[in-house]
């Protein structure tokens, strides 16, 4: 069974103020899917307000102020966010302390409400890529919002991927699994070979979290291994894809191509989308 070429412009590179019109522009340019990056950044667990002012020397031992604005200082590390007021000379410092938990990536993008709003304007396949710590929490909201595909990260679902896949399918979405550059390809085999398997594997060709990064050609070994092992599997690549890198991805066996800045930044997006599709189809003909 030959897999079809699917070109999915990444809406992360679109004009968010005109998302509906950007969607239509991509579809008019020949896009097969629309790739929706869903990321969550920092989550505040609890907040403490010190009952009494703290001596400046004490504050100095707790954290070094990386940023100061006026009479306020801020410090951020993996565990705490501090905001402390710096009074006139000789005074004491009032310290506000929030304990935080970092999520899967250091960025924040769209969520289910935006998917729901966008669905009112298009019937297109919305290829949702979840870069979150607890993907199972997002299945129902995205299913109700109208997501078409739900791709979660294997790194964030080692303990519950079977239940996760079942829930995704029960809400009419197509399950996929993604892996970061540092994750061994073998980690996704059980999910592809399961009784209720994922239907796509997304190989990240950049570190997830931001658009416009440089393509990592060494990730093509993973694509080649997957294509040889699973000839009929949809294999998606995401990160740094464009006219200068598509040949590497296509020849390795990728058939679903996510492209952001190379499409949205082009004078003629339709020409770039056509080039990407033709490269995949030509590579398939050589096999």
UniProtKB/TrEMBL annotation:
Q: Which GO terms describe its molecular function?
A: metal ion binding; racemase and epimerase activity, acting on carbohydrates and derivatives
Q: Please, which domain of life does this record's source organism belong to?
A: Eukaryota
Key words of the record: Isomerase, Metal-binding
Keyword Metal-binding (UniProt)? yes
GO annotation terms (biological process): carbohydrate metabolic process
Gene3D superfamilies from the UniProt entry: Aldolase class I
Pfam families for the chain: Ribul_P_3_epim
PANTHER family noted in UniProt: RIBULOSE-5-PHOSPHATE-3-EPIMERASE
Kindly provide the name given to this protein in its UniProt entry.
Answer: Ribulose-phosphate 3-epimerase
State the species of origin: Arachis hypogaea
């Amino acid at each position: 069974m030959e897999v079809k070429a699917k070109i999915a412009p990444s809406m992360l590179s679109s004009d968010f103020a005109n998302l509906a019109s950007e969607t239509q522009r991509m579809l008019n340019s020949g896009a097969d899917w629309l790739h929706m990056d869903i990321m969550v950044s920092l989550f505040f667990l609890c907040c403490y307000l010190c009952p009494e002012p703290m001596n400046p020397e004490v504050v100095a031992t707790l954290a070094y102020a990386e940023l100061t604005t006026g009479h306020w200082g801020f410090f951020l590390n993996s565990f705490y966010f501090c905001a402390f007021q710096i009074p006139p000379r000789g005074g004491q410092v009032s310290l506000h302390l929030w304990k935080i938990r970092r999520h899967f990536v250091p960025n924040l993008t769209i969520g289910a409400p935006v998917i729901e709003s966008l669905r009112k304007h298009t019937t297109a396949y919305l290829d949702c890529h979840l870069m979150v710590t607890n993907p199972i929490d997002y299945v129902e909201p995205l299913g109700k919002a109208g997501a078409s595909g739900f791709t979660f990260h294997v790194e964030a679902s080692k303990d519950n991927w079977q239940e996760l896949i079942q829930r995704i399918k029960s809400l009419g979405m197509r399950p996929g699994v993604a892996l970061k550059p540092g994750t061994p390809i073998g980690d996704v085999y059980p999910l592809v070979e399961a009784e209720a398997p994922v239907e796509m594997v997304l190989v990240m060709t950049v570190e997830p979290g931001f658009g416009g990064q440089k393509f990592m050609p060494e990730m093509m070994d993973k694509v080649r291994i997957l294509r040889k092992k699973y000839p009929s599997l949809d294999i998606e690549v995401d990160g740094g894809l464009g006219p200068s890198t598509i040949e590497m991805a296509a020849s390795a066996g990728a058939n679903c191509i996510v492209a952001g800045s190379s499409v949205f930044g082009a004078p003629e997006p339709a020409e770039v989308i056509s080039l990407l599709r033709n490269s995949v189809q030509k590579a398939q003909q050589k096999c």
